[in-house]
Amino acid sequence: MTGSIMLASGDVVITPGVVSGRMQASRGAGILEPVEFTGALDISFGKAVRVYFPDKRLPVIYGLTDPSSRLSVDFDAALGEFNLDGQAVLRGGSVFYIQRNFYLKHATIDFDEDAEQFDPLINAEAETRTSSESGPVVVTLRAVDSRLSSLSFSLESSPSMAEDTILQMLGQNLIGAQGGSADLGRFVFENSDLIPQLNVMSVLERNLHGLLGLDLFVVRSQVFQRWLYDVSGLSGSSGASSLADYLDETAIVGGKYIGDKLFAQLALSLVADPLASSAALSLDSEFSLEWKAPHFTLNWSIEPEHPDSLFIEDQSFSFLWRIPLQ
After folding, report:
1. What is the Cα–Cα distance from 224 to 200, expressed in whole angstroms?
2. Partners of 103 in the beta sheet?
3. In Å, what is the CA distance from 272 to each residue of 96, 190, 244, 302?
4. What is the pLDDT of residues 280-317, one digit of tens each?
5. Predicted TM-score of the model (pTM)
6. What single DSSP character describes residue 240?
7. Is the confidence at residue 202, as pLDDT, over 70?
8. Is the dihedral of CA 80, 3, 56, 65 positive or negative?
């Protein structure tokens, strides 16, 4: 059998059982019977094919195939031989790392597999946006020539930070610590979204990401975790928490690339006023544009708070450029 197959839409899941495993043909009962049956197929992809690794419910890598992806499959059922070659190009997905969904800018998965081994090579670049005490931070995550069986990432940031500092900044919600001491119960509940059955937010982000056509869509909320923590009795609080307590620090961030150089982002967040006598929430908003020029990056942002001054004092500009060190 020879020919071409066009996969216009569908889901592809690369599971841990396949990666680094041996592709054996079953000669007694299975798909590949010991008959003279050979094939050579060329596979192309549409824009609606979704790729997941290692699990569809909580994928580390999720992406949509680019039409430039091409694979070729050759097999011999009688001999149990199998060869898969080619490259899958992914765009517009996410990488789940340190309890965050990084926007997948692009990734390539190179296949050179046979019946003896299946361990594709991946190169990927993803990014997320956060903030530190000094202002907004863009964190870039990369996998360079990494096998799926031993997938590893490196982190960079703009403005530049040491990788340990980036890890500490991104993982500050993972330690479940207050006042320098770790709280095991708080750790479990605050990170309950790492459990696939409770990972509602990640699924919601992926679905809305595709529905709205955005390049970045992140929902950050601890409502469910705080509720679990309260009903468990581990919080030690005698009074019932208010709705403002649950919704505090809830944020929605959406972003879209306009071309390859201009990125627009809108962030909405609910913040409790610690000085208010009763529980109250305020809505903070920020709109920003980032333009990557050939030799520098220009950032403009506005946090509308003072309409009486025509929001002039609510705007900020920044330039960033890098000097390579040889």
Report:
1. 10
2. 94, 127
3. 28, 19, 7, 21
4. 778 888 898 888 788 888 889 898 888 888 888 889 88
5. 0.60
6. P
7. no
8. positive
Please identify which residue in the block is written with the tokens 């097999």.
Answer: 75
**Dist. CA 153–CA 322, nearest whole Å:** 22
CA distances from 216 to 116, 255, 304 (A): 39, 5, 22
State the Cα–Cα distance between residues 57 and 49, nearest whole angstrom: 16
Tell the residue number behind the tokens 């627009």, with chain if given.
Answer: 264
Cα(150)–Cα(291) distance, rounded to whole angstroms? 35
Distance (Å, whole) CA 322 – CA 297? 9
Place of tokens 């430039």: 68
Encoded tokens for 62: 């999720």
Peptide bond into 34 cis (omega under 30): no
Best CA proximity match to 234, nearest among 246, 224, 226, 242: 226
Q: How far is the C-alpha of 167 from the C-alpha of 173, rounded, in Å?
A: 11
Strands 100-114 vs 70-76: parallel, antiparallel or unpaired: unpaired
